[in-house]
């Protein structure tokens, strides 16, 4: 599981428990980093591959090339940086949720080895439903003029949330 997050097995890290977790959680619910539209320097990675039917100046890898068609949808990698401007474009779910699948496999490996939790599955039916819900979520800000109202969220987190909602019957 740690490897899926980029940690090596022999690499250690320190967990610090907050003396005031409720205060910190409450602060996080009401804190606004900038009333003019969030923190413009904050970089949010997509975390999951996705498809863009329009390109953003922040995505040079999505620009047309000699080998790629001049128009039409383009697949963008999981490490693409998302911005409020990008979230207003025509974005859609990928044909395959590669990073979510990797996460579930890492979780199951941990569950098998530790025996603390039961294993989970991402069936084809659930993956299809996740992609449909993700497409709806990605269209939420499409065409929004006021970028200050756009909340940028990693696409992987959106997909993970939808998968958990499906598993819980929500």
Walkthrough of the structure:
Helix 4 (124-139) crosses helix 5 (155-168). It contains 5 helices and 5 strands. The chain is mainly alpha-helical and 170 residues long. The longest helix has 17 residues, at 98-114. The protein has one domain (16-168). It has a 3-stranded antiparallel β-sheet. A two-stranded antiparallel ribbon has the order 1-4. It has helices spanning 21-30, 84-87, 98-114, 124-139, 155-168, and strands at 44-45, 50-52, 74-76, 81-82, 91-92.
Mind sketching the topology for me?
Blueprint (H helix, E strand, L loop, with lengths): L20 H10 L13 E2 L4 E3 L21 E3 L4 E2 L1 H4 L3 E2 L5 H17 L9 H16 L15 H14 L2
Antiparallel strand pairs: 1-4, 2-3, 2-5
Helix pairs in contact: 4-5
Which ranges are low-confidence, i.e. pLDDT below 50, for 5 or more consecutive residues?
34-39
Report the count of strand segments: 5
The total tally of domains equals 1
Instruction: Round the mean pLDDT to the nearest integer and report it.
Output: 78
Instruction: Work out the oligomeric state of the chains in this entry.
Output: single chain
- The 3D shape can be described as globular
Which structural category do the helix and sheet elements fall into? mainly alpha
Distance between the termini: 26 Å
Q: Count of DSSP helices? A: 5
């Amino acid at each position: 599981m740690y490897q899926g997050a980029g940690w090596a097995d022999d690499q250690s890290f320190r967990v610090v428990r907050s003396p005031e977790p409720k205060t910190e959680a409450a602060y996080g619910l009401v804190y606004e980093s900038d009333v003019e539209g969030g923190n413009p320097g904050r970089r949010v990675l997509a975390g999951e591959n996705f498809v863009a039917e329009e390109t953003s100046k922040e995505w040079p890898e999505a620009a047309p090339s000699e080998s790629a068609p001049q128009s039409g949808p383009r697949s963008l990698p999981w490490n693409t940086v998302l911005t409020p401007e990008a979230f207003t474009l025509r974005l859609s779910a990928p044909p395959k949720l590669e990073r979510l699948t990797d996460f579930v496999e890492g979780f199951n490996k941990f569950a098998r080895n530790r025996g603390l939790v039961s294993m989970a599955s991402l069936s084809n039916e659930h993956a299809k439903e996740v992609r449909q819900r993700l497409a709806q979520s990605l269209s939420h800000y499409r065409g929004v003029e006021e970028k200050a109202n756009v909340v940028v969220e990693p696409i992987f987190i959106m997909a993970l949330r939808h998968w958990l909602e499906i598993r819980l019957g929500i």
